[in-house]
Amino acid sequence: MKYNKQKHLLAKREATNAFRFLRTPKAGVVDFCSNDYLGLARVRDTLAVGEVKGSGGSRLLAGNYDEIESLEDYLSVFHKAESALIFNSGYNANIGFFSAVPQKGDIVFYDELIHASIKDGMRLSFAKSYSFKHNDIKNLKQKLENSEGGGDIYIVAEAVYSMDGDSAPLKDLVFLSKEYNACLVVDEAHSVGVFGEKGEGLVQELGLESQIPIRIITFGKAIGAHGAAILSSQLIKHFLINFSRSFIYTTALPPYSISAIKSSYLALQTGEKTKQITKNITFFRALVSKEKNIILVESFSSIQCVLVSGNKKVKNFSEFLINKGFDVRAVLSPTVLKGQERLRICLHVFNSEKEIKGLVVELVKVLDCEHIN
Questions:
Q1: What letters, b where the CB count within 10 A reaches 16 and e where it falls short, cover 113-139?
Q2: Which residue of 263, 304, 346, 368 is most buried, as measured by CB atoms within 10 A?
Q3: How many other CB atoms are there within 10 angstroms of residue 265's CB atom?
Q4: For every one of its 373 residues, what pLDDT tens digit does the chain have, with 9 covering 90 and above?
């Protein structure tokens, strides 16, 4: 991928003195640019992370500071990427990338179960977009062969899908992206923290980081904080700073959010958290495999789904489990296809084996109760 259109647009910005860049505050200057109108973003001696509570504006104004740039450098090293750009949420990151980077004449092929934020981003794009059947490489290949136009091609998938917990065939997608000279974009929202030796994500666990140009990671899941980052080349980082509206026109994350993200990443360094979640996932699946009437979606992530057809029935089953002391929520249609409703079970490092066993016991009971429908 040469990103010729993006290079042209960046050069045009430079030629007209409109090129945007990030700036950290200069010591000793009087603030005449931030949105901190009442001075409430500055609170002394109340926060462990320092004197500043808010960021004061967008990162192109007063909201850029040393700690956020330092975290981006850290993330690029940890995730073996050329650069990282922090957004306020995974939703913002997906909206920002897909509305800005794919250009008119380009084509985006996306898995039909892709996250809503990616679909919303594509709706704001001038590029055309087409879905392919979930995790179906053959169907995607057919779509690629039948595509017309001379624009760039993007293929979009999630490392782990939020409503099923299953994983994309990343190795096959990498092979196909090379065959058709396409840019592969992988959302790792539910993968980071769970896969990899230190929770680096599924892409790095498979050793594919150098072959996937764009990765989107979020901090609101396993990282337990807020925000997101796009891992990419330096060129795409510059392009997003200049053209991504969800990055340009929003107040930056405050220092305490950046501190929370960094502390979570430091906690991943030993690898113990990832080992524990893997142990609990394996333990749960081993117990469920012994039960014939539990229909479990194939997943090795923290998301484990038990299929229960019908909105009313799955809602009643969820209520039964909650009343038994296990907070398991129902996923209803049309969020998922009609007939594919499910109980969505999220496993955590703090779930004990006793608690997991208890859940499986109650699952068996509720699935045996024909009168709960």
A1: bbbebbeebbeebebbbebbeebeeee
A2: 304
A3: 21
A4: 889 999 999 998 888 777 877 877 667 766 767 667 546 456 444 445 455 567 889 999 989 999 999 999 999 999 999 999 999 999 999 999 999 999 999 999 999 999 999 999 999 999 999 999 999 999 999 999 988 778 999 999 999 999 999 999 999 999 999 999 999 999 999 999 999 999 999 999 999 999 999 999 999 899 988 999 999 999 999 999 999 999 999 999 999 899 989 999 999 999 999 999 999 999 999 999 998 888 899 999 999 999 999 888 988 998 899 888 999 888 888 888 889 999 999 999 889 999 999 999 999 998 887 556 6
